[in-house]
Amino acid sequence: MYHLLSVSSAMLISFLIGLLFAAMCAIVGRQKGYSTALCILLGFFGRLICLLILILLPDRMQEQYESDHLKQELSSLRQRMAELEQALEPTPAPEPAAPAADPQAAPPKRPPDAPAVFPARTEEVIACPRCGRHQKGNRDSCYACGLPFQYEHE
Q1: Structure confidence at residue 98 (pLDDT)
Q2: What residue ranges in 9-144 does DSSP mark as E strands?
Q3: Strand partners, 126
Q4: Which residues are within 8 A (CB) of 118 and not within 5 positions of it... i.e. 6 or more apart?
Q5: pTM, 2 dp
Q6: For 94, phi and psi rounded to 5 degrees?
Q7: Are 127 and 115 in contact (CB under 8 A)?
Q8: For the chain, which terminal residue's Cβ has fewer other Cβ atoms within 10 angstroms, N or C?
Q9: DSSP 8-state secondary structure symbol assigned to residue 153
Q10: pLDDT averaged over 10-residue windows placed end to end, the chain, 154 residues
Q11: Can you tell me the distance from the alpha carbon of 75 to that of 73, in angstroms, rounded to the nearest whole number?
Q12: CA distances (Å), origin 7, targets 20, 21, 46, 89, 107
């Protein structure tokens, strides 16, 4: 009789330890973003092994937070870039009132598709005469509007 009581006590203690590990696994798993039900099941049957595995697994909640934070920061940077590009766009110059009496004094207008002429290629930043976008002065054409660039010394 004493032997049966001892076995049932051991089973009860084993069951309670299983519940304790299931609860601990559920808490750790929920904090890390894993399925609570699965953590309870594994904690009850796997006990210490499951708890150690859950502790060592990556924190999915932290990864999700970092991912959301990076997406928000990227969106903010894109919006700021759009604002800066709008600020860099040249404002149209006011139209002159009336042409001067001497028509030869005004420089001849170039056609809209004529290439822009620069003195020489340079690593400095230049503005496209058509769209006003800033870019290095060694390009063959504007990256934004496609206006061809020519250089006098070539």
Answers
A1: 54
A2: 116-118, 125-127, 134-136
A3: 135
A4: 126, 137, 149, 150, 151, 152
A5: 0.36
A6: -65, 145
A7: no
A8: N
A9: T
A10: 63 82 85 83 77 78 85 90 80 58 54 80 88 88 89 82
A11: 5
A12: 20, 21, 21, 85, 108
Is 136 within 8 Å of 123 (Cβ atoms)?
Answer: yes
What Rg do the C-alpha atoms of the chain give, in angstroms? 36
The number of beta carbons lying within 10 Å of the beta carbon of residue 93 is 6
> Which secondary structure element, helix H or strand E, spans residue 55, and what is its range?
helix 48-56
Tokens of 70: 């990076």
The phi and psi torsions of 126 (rounded to 5 degrees) equal -125, 165
Q: How far is CA 45 from CA 15, 25, 84, 117, in A?
A: 10, 11, 59, 79
Compute CA distances 89 → 86, 96, 104, 127, whole Å: 5, 21, 31, 10
Could you tell me the sign of the dihedral formed by the alpha carbons of 64, 69, 70, 74, in that order?
positive
